[in-house]
Amino acid sequence: MNNHPPSFTGIRDLFRRKLSHLYTVKEADSIASLVIMTILKTERLQEMMNPSMVVPASKAKKISEICEELSAGKPVQYILGETEFFGCRLKLNMNSLIPRQETEELVDMVIKENRGYKGMLLDIGTGPGTIAIPLALNLPECTVHALDYSDRIISIARKNAILNNAEIVFFRADILDPSWKPASKYGIVVSNPPYVPENEKYRMHINVLNYEPPKALFVPDDDPLLFYRAIADRDGYLLLPGAKLYFEIHEKAGQSLRDLLTKKGFMNIRIIRDLNGRDRILTCTYNGR
Prior knowledge:
- By secondary structure, the protein is an alpha/beta fold.
- Helix content is about 40%, strand content about 20%.
- The protein has helices spanning about 10-20, 25-40, 45-50, 55-70, 75-80, 100-115, 130-140, 150-165, 205-210, 225-235, 235-240, 255-265, and strands spanning about 80-85, 90, 120-125, 145-150, 170, 185-190, 195, 220, 240-250, 265-275, 280-285.
- The longest helix has 16 residues, at about 25-40.
């Protein structure tokens, strides 16, 4: 920035210029607004109504530093240490996968199809509580459990549950550990496991490859369904008769996952497309054999 105190418009122009190699103008404007609101503790309406409002020098310096980090590819959610998801405020760190729009669609579907549900629900691979927290808040009669393989990850999720006043039982478990046996059976199981094949890394944005946790994203090319298989293989230990499963999936994995679940006796299999027209959610029921 120059020596003159910048305005909201000046900050937006700075972000457009500095981030043009990574983001569209619309994306840069959205990021600039988020940074302005967070650092200045303002509302979006104030920025829109007062575009020429001058930003204090100390705050402008902080915003400029954030812009430099963004220019290097670091995601804004990690820089600010938090994000918004389905009306919830989630604290994040570099161990946390950044929530995506597709996962909001998954959460919305689970809520709409299970209003009034009074049983037990399990979120497998909860991360920072992305799925479990809005489900606990929007299905208040439901008992929500959530697991992940790391104590560090579970610690973040617990803090986010407290931040959002969500009642959730968190525990550490590795779904890929064949010795793990769940202590309870559930009427609903939800999971957004790693599902991107390693051979698709070349397609990924640098702010994903260089910063987001690879264990939360990638699976071996020769076994892309390993997490779904691990869940399905525990059917008798994990699921009540008639239990519903909801999975977020890779856009090209729908048919192969349908085949896997059909062979294992799951029923009522549906594949749902996301807002971009890609296969993104698979849901089915357990027949309780």
